[in-house]
Write a structure and sequence with these properties.
Elements lengths: L1 H10 L3 H24 L1 H35 L4 H7 L4 H10 L4 H11 L5 H10 L4 H8 L1 H26 L15 E5 L5 H22 L9 E2 L2 E2 H19 L6 E4 L13 H37 L3 H4 L7 H8 L6 H11 L5 H10 L5 H7 L1 H26 L1
Antiparallel strand pairs: 1-4, 2-3
Length: 403
């Protein structure tokens, strides 16, 4: 058994493993290109999914990382250390970040948990409080209802987090940092290439302004068309295309690693402020690309699945009224923001009641679930199931009392 384990570890530390993973990335990209070439419908779906993933998610994830990483660098502030010294405030802080529109705050919490800075109760709190990009839609078209849902999600997230601590204790599903001592561990996806930085930043700057306008349902005709092409569509495709290209180009060894010894915790290198800020941009770029790949793939799987399997969420809600909140909660289990935006749209259009919308808002985890699925699937599944309990309680309380 030890020989097998040693052989496995040896393989994953060799250039052959890097080449294998690189080949898998190339295969994924070639499959997408081939599918687009053989089917016009698939090409349209892939292009639109690329654009939606970039303009609806990636730009906001990058903006959130920029805010947190640059503030951390400017003030030389160690978020992980602060959270570890203020454990009683971890749950409300996590819920507050989750309640922010979009998925950026929730992704930050998941990142800190996976690095050992937060407990599992904070994961439950943030996933319960967040409603992803559907929050922007509600803010723009129904701010009063949106405010109620935000407040409910935040409060339920705090209660859920403290309940997890009360039932399981603070060490439940704790990230095992001690087990990594003496090993080379992954810290972030720092990217050093200046050319790649420039290529990545070119679509990001206009993409953020476009994404912000789209999120709040603003009139985007001002962007219009240039030379007869759909400017917004191709801006999003360019952004996702650059992201995919960088993902393929980078090898596993380009990831930033550190060595932990048995007696000391991770020693943070002291940078001057300008150096810390430059380092922060590299962290933002690396972490955003990592999350974006999962988002792009999720959008593709969902949209292509709906197309080829001929599935429509509207059909699911033809059941009896009492089952509608339950169905909306189950839809919330689907990772990503696409299905949740559909639920919010249906609520705003009067197709489903408020109980279904608030149940979906509490149960859905947005794009914050992707990094957890990638690095710790067990935690992702358990946290999602835990967020279903308050979703059922709140949704059916609203259903029985007010509808």
């Amino acid at each position: 058994m030890n020989i097998l384990k040693s052989s496995t570890n040896l393989f994953f530390s060799t250039p052959l493993a890097n080449l294998t993973f690189l080949n898998l990335k190339v295969i994924v990209v070639l499959m997408l290109i081939g599918l687009a070439l053989v089917s016009d419908n698939a090409a349209t779906i892939i292009g639109q999914s690329f654009a939606d993933a970039y303009l609806q998610v990636t730009v906001f994830v990058a903006a959130t990382f920029f805010i947190f990483y640059f503030l951390e660098a400017w003030f030389n502030f160690d978020v992980k250390k602060y959270l570890q010294h203020h454990k009683n405030w971890q749950v409300p802080i996590a819920a507050s970040l989750g309640a922010l529109p979009g998925c950026g705050g929730a992704i930050m919490v998941m990142t800190q948990y996976l690095r050992g800075g937060l407990g599992f109760s904070s994961v439950v709190a943030v996933l319960t409080a967040t409603m992803g990009d559907a929050a922007f839609l509600l803010l723009a078209r129904a701010p009063a209802e949106g405010a109620i849902i935000f407040a409910a999600g935040w409060l339920v997230g705090i209660i859920s987090g403290y309940m997890v601590d009360a039932i399981h204790g603070s060490t439940f599903f704790a990230t095992d940092v001690k087990a990594n001592r003496g090993k080379s561990i992954h810290i972030d996806r720092q990217i050093d290439s200046k050319i790649l930085k420039i290529l990545w930043a070119i679509p990001l700057i206009p993409g953020f302004f476009v994404g912000f306008a789209l999120a709040f349902q603003s009139d985007t005709k001002i962007f219009g068309q240039i030379l007869g092409i759909d400017t917004l569509l191709w801006l999003g495709i360019l952004g996702s295309g650059v992201t995919l290209s960088i993902w393929v180009i980078l090898s596993l060894k380009r990831s930033h690693t550190v060595l932990l010894d048995d007696k000391k915790h991770l020693t943070r290198i002291s940078f001057e402020r300008n150096a810390r800020i430059r380092h922060s941009f590299e962290r933002v770029m690396g972490d955003t690309i990592f999350v974006s790949i999962w988002v792009i793939m999720a959008y593709l799987l969902y949209e292509l699945g709906v197309h080829f399997l001929n599935i429509e969420l509207d059909y699911l809600f033809n059941a009896g009224a009492i089952f509608i909140p339950l169905i909306a909660i189950l839809v919330g289990f689907i990772p990503g923001c696409g299905p949740q935006v559909v639920i919010a749209t249906m609520y705003l259009g009067g197709s489903i009641p408020f109980s279904a919308e608030i149940g979906n808002a509490i149960s859905n985890d947005g794009d914050a679930l992707f990094p957890a699925i990638a690095l710790n699937p067990k935690v992702a599944i358990v946290a999602t199931l835990y967020s279903a309990v308050p979703a059922l309680i709140v949704a059916y309380s609203v259903y029985w009392l007010f509808e």
